Amino acid sequence: RRVFSVAGCSMKSISLTYFNIQGAAEKVRLAFVLGGIPFSDVRVPFDQWPSMKPTTPYGQLPTMSIDGAEPIAQSDAMLRYAGQLATDNGVPLYPPDQMLDIEEARGLVSDLEREWRVPVGIGFQDPAIFGHSSNIKGTAEHKAIIQAVREKFLAEELPKYMGFFSKRLSGKPYLCGDSPTIADCALVPVLNRLCSGGVEFVPVDCFSAHPEVVAYLARFMELPAIQTWYKDSAP
Ligand SMILES: N[C@@H](CCC(=O)N[C@@H](CS)C(=O)NCC(=O)O)C(=O)O
Q: GST N-terminal domain spans which residues (predicted)?
């Protein structure tokens, strides 16, 4: 449990609870970090999850509690809330006059996340979810299926979405203009996961045909607040 604070910012006491991974919460963490909004970054060990699950609103994490109130769920609600607080704090992550453009970009990121769900999930979830026998888990047959599904994603969906993002990024440094917004906070963790080398059959240079995306990711990751965040936060 770590507490981040910046002098003169929101007086609310915000606690964000998730697993010790980036997953669905990293976009919210990044919005708080960029916005200079202090929050408690609570990370639940997986072995504590079964007993905690029934205490959450929908049996899922992340949850967020404000000033000790009942926790709320849904990471996109939290992302927009963090964006609003940041905007009030002088960091325009979600300014009302850009709402439509930011939501369009966030929707596009959601589409990419949806397309990525099967290629990533097929590697660790029950094969039965994807229409295969549960018995194939861990076998050479399973591995071949994982490879085929991921390579299809790399050949078809990834270039399609990277093309869309490159087009949005032509002539502007971030998805919605000169400075980052909640849409960038949503996209960056997805891109970092894709090129992490941590997903089998997805190479670290998977964006090499899309230099605008490579430059954009580097630009975001070089923001001072983000540099500090990844120096201090793990993983
Ligand atoms: N729509 C929800 C999805 C949350 C979600 O899928 N949480 C997963 C982890 S990413 C979870 O809690 N899994 C554990 C479980 O369902 O038992 C959100 O964006 O917050």
A: 12-90
